[in-house]
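Quick one, tokens below. Sequence please?
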């Protein structure tokens, strides 16, 4: 039996090295379900009971630079060597590295000897460092408060952005982005995470027919793309890089504090704007949002969409890049973000039917959806003004 198991593990390791992203993700889900089916009660107690410890110790490892130290070594190191390199106590490092081995963050190869794993390498990437900071420094208090928040609100689905688990956890009336402005480094962590978490290869620009929709455009003064709530401007930069010759203005909009640190991309205009106020750029070919509506409950999304609708002309296209949940089989990442949105903004991720209802309530028509990342259900939705018989 042991020999069979070793062969199976070797086959899985070989598959992991050659499989595509979707196959690897499906394999992880299957193996975790198998592991869960084998777990006894004591295992479940300690897995969930210590779940906060996992995140806390990852934060310690990032603060000390343990993961970078092991990755740069390219071979195993002793706990004493890592302690010396990081300026920490050897006995403490032995205990920390021993724990990391149990959660597969490092691999123990001998007495007090450890080497990097795939997870160690993941934890040295800039996007991962920013994300862990964001979740530990900001979101953790929200998660801790969620049970009490839901109980106090009689387990009703939250729709009031002025009464959230995040506000309860932080004992504040501030909205999430306003709160981040008061926390050193929080906004920078957030923008870094948002900018880097999605691979450039997985983009709405790979599926939406920009060239087809802009064929015949000649007016260089007409707004071509208005990126509303576009952060520091990565989407505008990618658009201009991919389509440098399409005539028209590319405009980035966000709050003044974000525009102050935005990228200075040639061919992109940076503009401070509150997207709940009337849209000042009228008649653009494309209005574009990415990951903005899911930060808001339905009544606010409706207002946001209405402001865009009023600025549109008959050939305008409103593109909303969001998660569009399937009716079954929602993945772990999307389901987790949905409940994170619940606690932070009293908002939600939505199915296509829920998006369609919301879009129509704002006087727009959802024409088509283009999914570019099946694993995380990331989709760009094409919305237009109703035409003729589209109007009830």
């Amino acid at each position: 039996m042991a020999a069979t198991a070793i062969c199976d593990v070797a086959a899985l390791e070989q598959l992991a090295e050659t499989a595509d992203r979707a196959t690897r993700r499906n394999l992880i889900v299957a193996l975790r379900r198998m592991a869960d089916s084998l777990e006894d009660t004591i295992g479940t107690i300690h897995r969930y009971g210590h779940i906060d410890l996992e995140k806390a110790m990852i934060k310690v490892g990032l603060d000390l630079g343990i993961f970078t130290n092991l990755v740069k070594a390219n071979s195993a190191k002793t706990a004493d060597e890592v302690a010396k390199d990081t300026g920490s106590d050897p006995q403490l490092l032995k205990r920390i590295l021993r724990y990391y081995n149990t959660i597969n963050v490092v691999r123990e190869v001998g007495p007090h000897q450890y080497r990097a794993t795939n997870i160690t390498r993941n934890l040295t990437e800039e996007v991962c460092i920013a994300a862990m900071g964001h979740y530990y420094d900001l979101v953790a208090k929200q998660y801790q408060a969620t049970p009490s928040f839901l109980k106090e609100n009689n387990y009703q689905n939250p729709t009031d952005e002025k009464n959230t688990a995040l506000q309860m956890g932080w004992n504040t009336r501030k909205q999430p982005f306003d709160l981040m402005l008061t926390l050193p480094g929080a906004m920078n962590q957030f923008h870094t995470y948002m900018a880097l978490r999605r691979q450039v290869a997985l983009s709405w620009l790979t599926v939406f027919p920009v060239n087809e929709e802009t064929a015949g455009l000649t007016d260089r003064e007409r707004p071509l793309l208005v990126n509303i709530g576009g952060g520091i401007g990565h989407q505008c930069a990618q658009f201009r890089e991919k389509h440098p010759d399409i005539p028209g203005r590319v405009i980035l909009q966000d709050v003044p504090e974000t525009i102050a640190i935005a990228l200075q991309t040639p061919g992109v205009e940076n503009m401070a704007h509150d997207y709940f106020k009337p849209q000042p750029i009228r008649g653009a070919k494309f209005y574009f949002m990415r990951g903005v509506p899911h930060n808001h409950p339905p009544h606010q999304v409706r207002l946001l969409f209405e402001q865009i609708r009023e600025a549109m002309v008959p050939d305008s296209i409103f593109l909303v890049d969001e998660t569009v949940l399937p009716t079954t089989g929602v993945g772990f990442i999307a389901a987790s973000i949905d409940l994170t949105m619940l606690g932070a903004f009293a908002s939600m991720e939505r199915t296509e039917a829920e998006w369609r209802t919301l879009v129509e309530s704002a006087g727009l028509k959802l024409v088509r959806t283009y999914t570019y990342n099946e694993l995380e259900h990331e989709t760009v939705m094409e919305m237009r003004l109703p035409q003729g018989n589209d109007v009830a």
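The chain has 18 helices and eleven strands. The first strand starts at residue 77 and ends at 78.
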